[in-house]
Amino acid sequence: MALTSARVRAVNAVFDAGSFAAAARRIGVTQSAVAQSVRELEGEFGVTLFERHGANLIPTSLCRQLYGATSRMQAVETDALSILSQREELAGGELRVGLGNSMPGMALIATFKQMYPKVQVAIEIGSWSAIVAAVVDQRVDIGVLPDVPADRRFRREICLEQRVVALCHPTHPLKKKPQVSIAELMRYPLVFRTRDSSTQRAIDRAFRTAGLRPIPSIVVNTREGMLEAVANHLGVGFMWEHGSSRVDRIAKVPIAELDAESPECIFALSGKKGRLVELFFLANGAHSPPRE
Fold first, then answer.
1. What angle do CA 249, 254, 258 make, to 5 degrees?
2. Does the global pTM surpass 0.70?
């Protein structure tokens, strides 16, 4: 038994138009094709969908129930076809995206570019506060950040959950540990980010909660600087777990006090309109209502 979209479309067209002929004209197929789809569906499921009264077809109670359910499916199909058809229409235009970390933002952009290869994407990478400001000032259309504030100014959608981890060189003693505590980290030279980093704010909270006041060996203002410092044996650093795809000379170690995951969000100004903005949300699975 097959409830195909073609059969559903034929039944709903007859429901709306009242006859095979009118339904055929509505959906652009032959009258015999419509009639065959309806009869096959009735025969396979052993049901009656329409009562024949002369030239008119009257929907049965079962048919009305089926129409109520499948008309919603058709609306979704129509929306999907509209989105797919735009892929070829989007021959130009630019989408500006702000990233707090190269990843997972680059992966989200890759998904979007696979669907809409002709759209140019301009990328700004900066600290957490810089990307929030870029969205607010409309220097970028979309931002991707952890811990986006629950602010009515923003439409935000979670794209993944992640936690802050410690970074060390693969030859570092911490590499052998399945997990490290905040207190243990005090034994090693530490590499911190500047205060406008969401990673650093999470680390600062963890040390304060533990009643510890670490003095970093090095402070860097970019995540690339953090990665290079760790790769060159300058200390233990910190980063969001999926903040980089880099694997050379970098090892990630979970931190006991930072085991809870935080949401990484795609976000934009609540009033920000535009087809490219909507398509970026849709391309990356952000279908739920805006979060307040």
1. 135
2. no
